[in-house]
């Protein structure tokens, strides 16, 4: 086993290189886009580690970092480079010493440095395909004229690597052309799962599509629906974010506020702009970050500088994982960060192997001396190299882990598993093709790449960490991740704490999580907070996670989270507006202030009317009672009684019977009263007018005639009511519109009879016509002598009644829009009717009762007068009115015959 750096003066190598350049140079320019002349500029074959064996495996490791502009390689990478490279050497040692795996077959290796640069890695990997290229050596001659001795290059059957996804993509494009299988230990870009483009590529780490799925599941488990993404420019970052975006779209319920790319070569102020952009959508506190360590560190630094410690809630990919380097000196900003890392374990056997490495026993690793200098911060003296002043000299007695800090690099397990996967595939292939043959048989010389790929895809064994190693049809390993959270506050041992796992589905322990300041409650990262009860979501166009909350107002309730709907007409919304409830039903109660006053007036009126009727009956044959026209008086008093009685029907709980009696009696009482009064005033008017013309009395002035006329007038009202009964039978209704204020809490359904305002007025209209007609006759009879008849009391009664009903109209109709319409209108109507009845009773009968009760001496028979006396009185009155305008209606003391 040697490390090879072939010298440029060897004739065989020059011939090889010349042949290579003449035949395949154009091929690389066309397919890959780089010039093979770049090797020639180096002047040497790429530096590599060569380990002899029956079957050779290739290895690609980022031994050095990317160099500055114009320089391919930078400083050595101890963990990602040397640790991983040594893991392959360790695995080869283990396999070659295993009697059950590839017995009698030794695995060799050709290991190259990619310098963390895809183009440089491609140039290096051309070493793997030299044996497969036909070379034209016809023009090659040695200086002595002898034919060149061209060594046969070893044939690489498979490649372990590369590390970075961009490097693996570049290399995979070349290896595919020559059917060389490739197994990566660290490349996770989803693009590499495309079997049609990278059919010879496999990997023992899960692709970022699984990682992205795990991150989507984590975000959803924490209740976030509005996050931003940060990606380092390049295949890893951009592909990871693209996978996250695609999966989140398919899953739904997750919106991306900002999707920001970090340039490869950030300009000054670039990270300040990134933080400023993230703060444009400050509600998106969750930040999904697929970035390299340097970018992660600078994002944290800038957030801290902007005084945003504790604002951002980072969810980091495996490039962050459980590493301390990205968060060094930024621990307070990183507190609460949830990170993901492929499930792995530390391999104890490798620790023992690596810590025992020294300059003496590890000469096969040509870069180990450089690692030694960097690890122990010392300088080895070499021939031709000047010793640096101020730096101690390496003694060679230093020991890893004892004299330097050592922690096994996270991908060591996967490097070992990748080598073992290749070994198991070769072992299965050997069993099938070389059954019973010791060593490599002819069927495996050379190893056919496409066949080996099939065996690789079929492997299934327990890896170095005890977990199964297998590949799906795209060459991807199963997704197995550990989920960590960086915790700082209120913990005895600050650092990354395991809080869950993801293996096809998420298992998260929220009770183990802790956030900035030691808070246990998961912070929110949402575009819009949930709407309050009774509020609907008005979505923001194009952003399904953002909305405005609008209250379902009026009589609306929340039909679903996006729309309001009106409650049915007989219902009102619940207080929280999540549904509807029946509207309370009310009626005018006897205890209501709106009822107490009308009832009080009605009771007084009924008592008074009853007293008048009783008095008249008791003194039925006395002159005053007889002179007032007993028959019509009883009819009129009956009407007054019914007017008072209607108050109780208007306040009583509506029912079919109550509604029927309301229709019947509402206008009947007034109709009876005003029919009787109209008949009286009409009789007086006709007698007085007839007396001016002749001594012949007018017709129909007898009591019987008066009763007949009165009942004819009353029958018109009754006929109208019974026609109404026939056309529309009485019934009750619940009016939900009458008391429906803007605030539904005050909404009420009013139980009432089926009498509209119009039908109520029509019911009273006939009585109003009688009242107006009676008033007209009262006016016409105003010239009758004061003591001659009842014309003047009836006139005053009608004038007052008209005033009452004129006041009633604006009050009744002016309150039609009031929420207490029923109460106001009922009270107005009943009080107006009671007042009109009281006016009639007070003007016409109370004075008579007063005389009958308190001055019986005046209740005596006066001499009778004939119709001739009436004629004389009318004549005298006419003459007096003509002579003196200040004496109205005459002062004649002549009284008519009241018995007529």
From TrEMBL:
SUPFAM superfamilies listed in its UniProt record: Periplasmic binding protein-like I (SSF53822)
Keywords: Cell membrane, Disulfide bond, G-protein coupled receptor, Glycoprotein, Membrane, Receptor, Signal, Transducer, Transmembrane, Transmembrane helix
Cellular component terms per the entry's GO annotation: plasma membrane
Signal peptide (residue range): 1-40
Regions of compositional bias (Basic and acidic residues) in chain numbering: 884-900
Subcellular location: Cell membrane
Domain G-protein coupled receptors family 3 profile positions: 594-868
UniProt keyword annotation of Transmembrane helix present: yes
Similarity remark: Belongs to the G-protein coupled receptor 3 family.
Protein name according to UniProt: Glutamate receptor, metabotropic 6b
UniProt lineage: Eukaryota, Metazoa, Chordata, Craniata, Vertebrata
């Amino acid at each position: 086993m040697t490390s090879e750096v072939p010298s440029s003066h060897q004739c065989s190598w020059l011939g090889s290189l010349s042949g290579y350049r003449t035949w395949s140079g154009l091929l690389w320019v066309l397919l890959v886009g780089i010039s093979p002349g770049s090797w020639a500029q180096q002047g040497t074959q790429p530096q590599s580690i060569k380990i002899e064996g029956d079957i050779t495996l290739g290895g690609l490791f980022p031994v050095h970092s990317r160099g500055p502009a114009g320089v391919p390689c930078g400083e050595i990478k101890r963990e990602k480079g040397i640790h991983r490279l040594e893991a392959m050497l360790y695995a080869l040692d283990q396999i070659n010493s295993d009697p059950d795996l590839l017995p009698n077959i030794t695995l060799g290796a050709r290991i190259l440095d990619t310098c963390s640069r895809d183009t440089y890695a491609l140039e290096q990997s051309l070493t793997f395909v030299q044996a497969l290229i036909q070379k034209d050596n016809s023009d090659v001659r040695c200086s002595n004229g002898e034919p060149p001795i061209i060594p046969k290059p070893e044939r690489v059957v498979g490649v372990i690597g590369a590390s970075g996804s961009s490097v693996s993509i570049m290399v995979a494009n070349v290896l595919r052309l020559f059917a060389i299988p490739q197994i990566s230990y660290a490349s996770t870009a989803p693009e590499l799962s495309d079997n049609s483009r990278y059919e010879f590529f496999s990997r023992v780490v899960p692709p970022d599509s699984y990682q992205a799925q795990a991150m989507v599941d984590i975000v959803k488990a924490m209740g976030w629906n509005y996050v931003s993404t940060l990606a380092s420019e390049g295949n890893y970052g951009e592909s990871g974010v693209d996978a996250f975006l695609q999966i989140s779209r398919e899953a739904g319920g997750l919106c991306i506020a900002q999707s920001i790319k970090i340039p490869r070569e950030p300009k000054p102020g670039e990270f300040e702009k990134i933080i400023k952009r993230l703060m444009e959508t400050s509600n998106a506190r969750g930040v999904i970050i697929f970035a390299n360590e340097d970018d992660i560190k600078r994002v944290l630094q800038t957030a801290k500088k902007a005084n945003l410690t504790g604002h951002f809630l980072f969810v980091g990919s495996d490039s962050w994982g459980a590493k301390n380097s990205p968060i060094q000196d930024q621990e307070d900003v990183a507190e609460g960060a949830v990170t993901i890392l492929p499930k792995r374990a530390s391999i104890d056997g490798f620790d023992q192997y690596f810590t025992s490495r020294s300059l003496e026993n590890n000469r096969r690793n040509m870069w180990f001396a450089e690692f030694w200098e960097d690890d122990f911060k010392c300088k080895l003296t070499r021939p031709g190299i000047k010793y640096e002043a101020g730096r101690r000299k390496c003694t060679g007695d230093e020991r890893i882990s004892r004299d330097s800090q050592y922690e096994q690099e996270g991908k060591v397990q996967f490097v070992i598993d990748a080598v073992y996967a290749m070994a198991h595939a070769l072992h299965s292939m050997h069993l099938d093709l070389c059954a019973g043959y010791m060593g490599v048989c002819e069927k495996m010389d050379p190893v056919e790449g496409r066949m080996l790929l099939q065996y690789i895809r079929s492997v299934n064994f327990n890896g170095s960490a005890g977990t199964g190693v297998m590949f799906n049809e795209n060459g991807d390993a199963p997704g197995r991740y550990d989920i960590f959270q960086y915790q700082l506050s209120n913990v005895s041992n600050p650092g990354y704490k395991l809080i869950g796992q993801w293996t096809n589905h998420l298992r998260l322990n929220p009770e183990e999580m802790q956030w900035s300041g030691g808070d246990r409650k998961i912070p929110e990262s949402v575009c819009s907070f949930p709407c309050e009860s009774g509020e609907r979501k008005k979505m923001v166009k194009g952003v399904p996670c953002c909305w405005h909350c609008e209250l379902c107002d009026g009589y609306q309730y929340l039909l679903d989270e996006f729309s309001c709907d009106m409650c049915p007409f007989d219902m009102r919304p619940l207080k929280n507006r999540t549904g509807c409830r029946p509207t309370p039903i009310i009626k005018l109660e006897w205890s209501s202030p709106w009822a107490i006053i009308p009832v009080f007036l009605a009771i007084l009126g009924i008592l008074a009317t009853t007293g008048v009727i009783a008095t008249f009956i008791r003194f039925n044959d006395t002159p005053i009672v007889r002179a007032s026209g007993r028959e019509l008086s009883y009819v009129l008093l009956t009407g007054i009684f019914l007017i008072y009685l209607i108050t109780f029907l208007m306040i009583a709980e509506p029912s079919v019977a109550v509604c029927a009696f309301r229709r019947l009696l509402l206008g009947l009482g007034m109709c009876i009263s005003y029919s009787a009064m109209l008949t009286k005033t009409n009789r007086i008017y006709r007698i007085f007018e007839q007396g001016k013309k002749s001594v012949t009395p007018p017709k129909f002035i007898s009591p019987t005639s008066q009763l007949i006329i009165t009942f004819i007038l009353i029958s018109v009202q009754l006929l109208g009511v019974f026609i109404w009964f026939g056309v529309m039978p009485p019934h009750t209704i619940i009016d939900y519109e009458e008391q429906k204020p803007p605030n539904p809490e005050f909404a009420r359904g009013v139980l009432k009879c089926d009498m509209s305002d119009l039908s109520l007025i029509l019911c009273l209209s006939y009585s109003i016509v009688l009242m107006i007609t009676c008033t007209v006759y009262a006016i016409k009879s105003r010239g009758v002598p004061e003591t001659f008849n009842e014309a003047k009391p009836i006139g005053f009664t009608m004038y007052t009644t008209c005033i009452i009903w004129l006041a009633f109209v604006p009050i009744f109709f002016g309150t039609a829009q009031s929420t207490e319409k029923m109460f106001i209108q009922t009270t107005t109507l009943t009080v107006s009717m009671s007042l009109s009845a009281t006016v009639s009773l007070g003007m016409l009968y109370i004075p008579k009762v007063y005389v009958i009760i308190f001055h019986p001496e005046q209740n005596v028979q006066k001499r009778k007068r004939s119709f001739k006396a009436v004629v004389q009185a009318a004549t005298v009155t006419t003459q007096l009115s003509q002579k003196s305008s200040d004496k109205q209606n005459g002062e004649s003391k002549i009284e008519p015959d009241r018995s007529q």
